Amino acid sequence: MLMFIIRRLVQTVPVIIGVTFVVFFIMQLVPGDPAVLLAGEGASKDTIEAIREQLGLNRPLYVQYFDYLMNLANGDFGVSLKNSQPVLDEILVRLPITLELALFSILITIVLGMGAGIISAVKPYSMQDVGVMLVALIGISLPSFWFGLMLMYFFSVKLQILPVAGWDSLLHVILPALTLGAGGAAIVARMTRSSMLDVIRQDYIRTARAKGLRERLIIYKHALRNALIPVITVVGLQFGALLGGTVLVESIFAINGLGRMIVDAIRMRDLPMVQGGVLFASLIFVIVNLFVDVFYRFFNKRIELN
Amino acid sequence: MNEKNKPILEVKGLKTYFTTKRGVSKAVDGIDFTLHKGETLGIVGESGCGKSITSLSILRLIPSPPGKIAGGSILFKGNDLVTMSENEMRKVRGNEISMIFQEPMTSLNPVIPVGEQIAEALRLHQKMGRREAWAKSVEMLKLVGIPSPEKRAKQEPFQLSGGMRQRVMIAMALACTPEVLIADEPTTALDVTIQAQILALIKDLQTKIGMGVIMITHDLGVVAETCDKVAVMYAGNIVEHATTEQIFANPKHPYTQGLLASLPKIYEDQEELRTIEGSVPSSYNMPAGCRFASRCPYQEAICTAQQPELVEQSDGSKVRCWKYTEQWTGQVEQEEVV
Ligand SMILES: Nc1ncnc2c1ncn2[C@@H]1O[C@H](COP(=O)(O)OP(=O)(O)O)[C@@H](O)[C@H]1O
Ligand SMILES: [Mg+2]
Questions:
Q1: Residue B11 shares a structural domain with residue B56
Q2: How confident is the prediction for chain B on average, in pLDDT?
Q3: Which of A236, A240, A292, B308 is most buried, judged by most C-beta within 10 A?
Q4: What pTM was computed for the model?
């Protein structure tokens, strides 16, 4: 197990380098010249050239990339073109907010999704199953910006029981997390159901019945553990999708997280800020995948090293 | 053996049907047999003749829907399992009647240590505490010949070979010292040397515990080694019921004769195995007459017209064949001879 974790860690190194490569070069392709932008309107050609010189933007690309990597290795993510503050400082303020949002969302995805899936699977084709699966289908089809606005309208404007926007208390977390987690919950519910129904037909469930166990024990001890193995992978994938979703949800609910920071930085053509933000988001993604892999392996030791 | 005692298991007119889109499949269609303490009954027949459905019916483990016990009774120590409440039935399963399945690779839960899979039955039926049940399950693993049982008990099935897993299944089935063990092709999925070991193990434990065994197999070799009496099944029916000696020395039903003829013979130089020509009728659409008629070398008019009954013969065996009744004319055979 330890060997596996170490090997898996080593494998992430080329992935991270690849990410820096992509992040760096995509930014080069983005239209708009940061030097022009910084110089402000009507600046002379010389001023722009001077800013280029100063930022090192006139050097060959590979030199700039290498330089960029070296700086990263030293924990230097550059300074914002907008306010000359270190990018890392800004990210470290924003990151915990986004992580908190993501964690609450994935919690909703897991608890709501698995719960609904189990309720469906224990009585397939019953009213409760059809009802839950209908809700899940709607949950998958709803666009999250619309769903978020509806939640906001209903709970904050109409009922006035939850705050509209911002990020001050735990109450503020509920609606954004629900918006972000709902789609995943629907997918996890369907996955849990189909996985459970598949497991219940297996020979070892028949063995458990032949032993005289109660149906409840058969479901929760013998079936669920096996059924959840594929669901864990889906949850991991959902976490990735969810990170992308933070951009939207943070904008809707005016949350100053990493997603909103990236959007703002893109709008301002704040190149180092965008690079830093995307790099961090990718890093989270890689780490989450690592966790999912280790988790999956823990739950399913049958997939031995091969 | 134990002829005069009351049987522990008495199956009468058992019918198990499957209702599907294609119609009704009469997988088991009116079978009778009895089992006494310490006795081994073999149930033989080709794949698909209803052996597994028979055994699953006894423990009421037929997947339902689509399956259903459509008639008959299964008396276990005088109580009918067919009409028993689900609660009472659970007390029988794994406790008084146990089962070993054909598929050792898939019949154990892949994510639960094998020791726990044995121990849970002990906690449930014998009301043992955790420690006691665990100790007993290690003891059971030792009894079925698994080396270093303390270590193995903590392992999950993927760490065990097929033969070991079947031993675990046996340990699980016998943990609560059942009165009846149903072994559904327990060795089919295993290689030959392991097969012999597993059969010997079941036999050995049977004498220790004194239970009745229903040995289900498609292999007459297994019957010869382990059984006291045999029920030969064909297309959901029992076509012949006799002691093991009678079956091998004097097989009566043409199907049984065919099965025996297709056994490899050690003393003869046989180029290839003989098989019975033709195929089994569909369980969805059984013929009105004898179900074996289309494959039978002795077929006469009455065979396709009406189904024969299972009739007791002078030697105590039972046969479901017109040849052994007064209605038999014997004309077809004579014509062929002339
Ligand atoms: N789930 C099912 N649905 C419909 N028919 C079934 C089902 N299970 C078994 N059967 C029918 O029962 C017959 C007997 O099956 P089985 O008892 O498993 O045979 P075997 O003698 O090989 O153990 C099969 O030929 C099949 O037609
Ligand atoms: Mg079978």
A1: yes
A2: 88
A3: B308
A4: 0.79
